[in-house]
Write a structure and sequence with these properties.
Elements: E1 4-7, E2 12-20, H1 24-34, E3 36-37, E4 43-52, H2 57-63, E5 68-77, E6 86-97, E7 100-111, H3 112-116, H4 124-131, H5 133-136, E8 145-159, E9 164-176, E10 187-189, E11 191-198, H6 207-212, E12 216-217, H7 222-232
Antiparallel strand pairs: 1-7, 2-7, 2-11, 2-12, 3-8, 4-5, 4-8, 5-6, 6-7, 8-9, 9-10, 9-11
Length: 235
């Protein structure tokens, strides 16, 4: 898969409604009635490994609310039983400017044993980015290494009325790099996140029902919430 590159041109706005996992039946029933399921990737398990520097630069940018943020991650899709000997992995660099973002992403092939069984301290993780720096268009230096793996379930929709892509995420779990955070335990979040992405950032009309049910339109980062607990030793 080397050479499969993509870049989101311009800046895409994303907004999030956040509630409790117990809200899932209501949210899915609402979206099933109002939106179209994504024809290519309706449901699945999302797996991401997040990278950071020894001084936790990316986490500090997130925790301090910096207007400019950088995120480095490797992402793949599917549950363990669905994967073959090699798995498509997407190497991503995300730059956030306020509520807008720019993302570079390339697809590569990675051994599934690295994804499922190797510790996050395995040197093959940073080697993935080092081997594909030219295709990414931006180097990720050897000081960037994995800090945590985050997994969750997702269902996706398309809103044709206002051109939004919509997703619902739940069952969020975080697993720390035990070498970097020897005191930390795996993390489980009770949150449910309904996210929409479009060029304007205006909430769609159906979102009024989410707010009436108690979901809040606010900033929320699964990475940020998991890292907050990991760095403080909260499961």
């Amino acid at each position: 898969m080397p050479g499969l590159a993509s870049q989101e041109h311009g800046l895409v706005n994303e907004r999030k409604f956040v509630g409790d996992r117990l809200d899932l039946p209501f949210v899915l029933a609402l979206l099933d009635a109002r939106l179209l399921p994504d024809r290519y990737h309706e449901t699945g398990r999302i797996n991401s490994v997040y990278f950071d520097t020894p001084g936790l630069r990316a986490w500090d940018e997130k925790a301090n609310g910096d207007n400019l943020k950088r995120k480095v991650r490797a992402r793949w899709y599917g549950r363990p039983e669905e994967l073959g000997p090699e798995t498509p992995v997407f190497l991503e660099l995300k730059h956030r400017i306020g509520a807008a973002r720019r993302k570079e992403r390339i697809g590569v092939a990675a051994p599934t044993d690295l994804l499922l069984r190797a510790p996050l301290s395995d040197p093959r993780w940073p080697a993935l980015f080092a081997a594909h720096a030219e295709a990414l268009g931006e180097p990720v230096g050897p000081e960037w290494s994995p800090v945590c793996r985050i997994e969750y379930d997702r269902v996706r929709y398309n809103d044709l009325e206002n051109g939004s892509r919509v997703s619902v995420d739940w069952n969020v779990e975080g697993f720390p790099n035990e070498e970097r955070f020897p005191w930390a335990a795996p993390v489980a979040l009770d949150a449910l996140v309904c996210e929409f992405k479009n060029r304007g950032g205006a909430p769609p009309r159906w979102s009024e029902a989410l707010q009436s049910a108690g979901l809040r339109l606010r900033s929320f980062s699964k990475y940020g919430e998991c890292m907050l607990r990991i760095t403080n030793g909260i499961p």
